[in-house]
Design brief:
Elements (H helix, E strand, L loop, with lengths): L5 H14 L3 E4 L4 H14 L3 E2 L9 E3 L13 E3 L4 H4 L4 E2 L2 H12 L7 E9 L8 E7 L2 H10 L1 E2 L1 H10 L3 E6 L9 E5 L4 E5 L4 H4 L2 H17 L2 E3 L1 E7 L5 E7 L6 H5 L11 E6 L3 E5 L5 E4 L4 E5 L9 H6 L5 E3 L2 E3 L4 E2 L8 E3 L19 E5 L16 E9 L9 E3 L3 H9 L2 E3 L11 E3 L12 H9 L1 H4 L5 E5 L19 H11 L5 E4 L2 E4 L13 H7 L4 H16 L7 H14 L1
Parallel strand pairs: 1-6, 3-19, 4-5, 4-10, 7-9, 9-11, 14-24, 24-28
Antiparallel strand pairs: 2-3, 6-7, 6-8, 10-11, 12-16, 13-14, 13-15, 16-17, 17-24, 18-23, 19-23, 20-21, 20-22, 25-28, 26-27, 29-30
The structure holds oxalic acid and manganese (II) ion.
Oxalic acid binds next to helix 7.
């Protein structure tokens, strides 16, 4: 295989001359190619076959122990003007960044195969989809990209038809953390990533393209690329309300997107469009339409069990790549939260000893096709996408943020998103459990200045006739002893039902200075063991705490200086006044 697109063939030749691979392989995305690559990795030990009887077509990959998460401190947005990247990004001048990484790419593929991966983010025939090509020297990346994107011949055909594509160059290099960089060049629609094989750093279609580069592209083209799941909430009458929800990494997006309602909610159903990324476009009908650019799930394994997430548990029993989990004596994958089996080795391949840490790394991952999800929505393949009725923002907060509230209008909703904060998780290297501002859950992924991003969000009130309602949720509220006040998981449907009722104009809310809270009795708690006192805490606000919170939000927003849109500043002042 090769290509009629001169830009692409020139780029492949140029990269090959620079990185000096032994071979070049153009990926066609076929089953045969996938099998061959898996075979090679089984032979060289980078894959281990899991129990064929109980986990058919499942493989275990153990990464370098220093390469297990996204590296935000080594991730750069390289725009010509520093201010365009904003204080929310690490910045390097494009020429310096190219020079720095090009030196590391020099000869880095010697003795390796260079793979060319044409891919399409989104349904192959959707006008909302966008294409890219990743060049990599990692067969692990190729097989993961095959699951996570529409990859191969059809994508190449689309690229040849359209001409435009994102250029992503990746090499695992020598996995030296000192020589690891994830560089983005939004103005060139290009990415250069070296020194890591971890999904978020190496599967370039995902965070690098579908969020950082796409958010920049979306700003110039009038749409939004967001760190959001998309789900359909179907009522017993068969009507579906589509909800897009943004939560920071490892805060339960995958669980929410595949939720199974409790027995008491007969006739209600959740279908999954996506679990991590949403591309949102204004439609001709004045509504906001969403596609999931991905074709697979790269989910956090620990905690996935038949009670917490039955759909994910079922989908990863076959045709799944496990990265950095433990293993049982009969070659089954094992992780904390899996009810069966016992680990004999841990994620480093060493004998398991609970004293030295968990069997599975807290950020161990599964890669599986979205089609394996029992709640997969057929609308996920719809080239038009789905119309969004509600946008939900959520963080992991032990205090302050109530279970749910609704913004009074779009501008207030943008403030609610911009003011989001959450405790950090193992999805990125660094401290875990520290509260940090994470506007729209895009702190690690917004490919340009947050202030301009908020202005772009605000502009949607003029772009849409039927704006989605905006909400904030918090499943993680705790009391002083660290006890969770809300059961979460399947019971979150109770909150989703309140949200969909709000979208239909049901009278189920009371006004408060921070937005609309559930009125008494409007969240169905039948069958739940929850005291009135806990419910009052969950659905109420502490004014003093919120005065502090809005002050902190205001200070944070002001750190963006003159570029901060007036609309957001005014909205923050309005809420602050309302709090007295
Ligand atoms: C992810 C992340 O992998 O957000 O989805 O880190
Ligand atoms: Mn994510």
């Amino acid at each position: 295989m090769s290509t009629k697109n001169k830009d692409l063939s020139d780029w492949v030749n140029e990269v090959a001359a620079h990185t000096r691979p032994e071979d070049i392989h153009w990926c066609d995305g076929s089953d045969e190619e996938f099998r061959d690559l898996v075979g090679e990795m089984l032979e060289n030990g980078s894959f281990r076959e899991l129990n064929r009887g109980s986990f058919p077509n499942c493989y275990l990959h153990l990464s370098d122990p220093t390469d297990v998460a996204r590296v935000e401190h080594l991730t750069f947005v390289c725009t010509s003007k520093e201010d365009d990247a904003g204080p929310n990004n690490h910045w390097m001048a494009p020429a310096d960044a190219h020079e720095k990484v090009d030196a590391l790419f020099d000869g880095c593929m010697q003795g390796r195969t260079l793979y060319v991966i044409p891919y399409c983010m989104g349904p192959i025939d959707s006008p909302l989809s966008r294409c890219g090509v990743e060049i990599t020297d990692s067969p692990y990346v190729v097989v993961n990209m095959r699951i996570m994107t529409r990859m191969g011949e059809a994508a190449l055909e689309r690229i040849e038809r359209e001409g435009t594509f994102v250029k992503g160059l990746h090499s695992t290099g020598d996995l030296d953390p000192e020589k690891r960089y994830i560089m983005h060049f939004p103005e060139e629609l290009a990415i250069k990533s070296i020194g890591s094989g971890y999904g978020g750093n190496a599967l370039l279609g995902k965070k690098c393209h579908a969020l950082r580069i796409a958010s920049y592209q979306a700003k110039t083209e009038g749409w939004l690329a967001e760190h959001m799941l998309i789900l359909g909430l179907e009522n017993p009458e068969g009507e579906t309300c589509y909800i897009a929800a943004a939560f920071p990494s490892a805060c339960g997006k995958t669980n929410l997107a595949m939720l199974i309602p409790p027995e008491s909610h007969k006739g209600w159903k959740i279908t999954t469009i996506g679990d991590d990324i949403a591309w949102l476009h204004p439609g001709e009908d004045g509504r906001l339409w969403a596609i999931n650019p991905e074709a697979g799930l790269f989910g956090v394994v620990p905690g996935t069990g038949p009670k917490t997430n039955p759909c994910a548990y079922e989908m990863i029993q076959h045709d799944t790549i496990f990265t950095n989990v433990g293993m049982t004596s009969d070659d089954e994958p094992w992780w904390e939260g899996r009810p069966d089996g016992e680990p004999v080795t841990n994620w480093k391949g060493e004998p398991y000893d609970p004293k030295t840490g968990p069997a599975a790394h807290p950020n161990s991952r599964f890669t599986a096709s979205a089609k394996q999800n029992p709640s997969y929505s057929p609308r996920a393949e719809d080239p038009r996408g789905v119309p969004i009725s509600a946008i939900v923002f959520g963080g992991r907060r032990r205090g302050t943020a109530p279970l749910v509230y609704e913004a009074r209008d779009w501008r207030h909703g943008v403030l609610v998103g911009a003011g989001m904060a959450s405790e950090t998780t193992a999805a990125a290297t660094g401290n875990v459990g520290v509260v940090r501002r994470d506007p729209m859950a895009m702190k690690p992924f917004c490919g340009y200045n947050y202030a301009d991003y908020w202005a772009h969000w605000l502009s949607f009130s003029d772009k849409l006739d039927k704006l989605p309602n905006i909400f904030h949720v918090n499943w993680f509220r705790q009391d002083e002893d660290g006890r969770f006040l809300w059961p979460g998981f399947g019971d979150n449907i109770r909150v989703l039902r309140w949200i969909s009722d709000r979208c239909k104009g049901v009278d189920n809310a009371v006004e408060s200075p921070i937005g609309r809270l559930p009125s008494k009795g409007s969240i169905d708690v039948e069958g739940l063991d929850i005291s009135d006192a806990d419910l009052a805490v969950l659905t109420g606000i502490e004014k003093n705490e919120w005065r502090e919170e809005i002050k902190a939000i205001g200070e944070y927003l002001e750190s963006f200086g003159d570029r901060l849109p007036d609309g957001l500043r005014d909205e923050c002042n309005r809420v602050s006044k309302a709090l007295g």
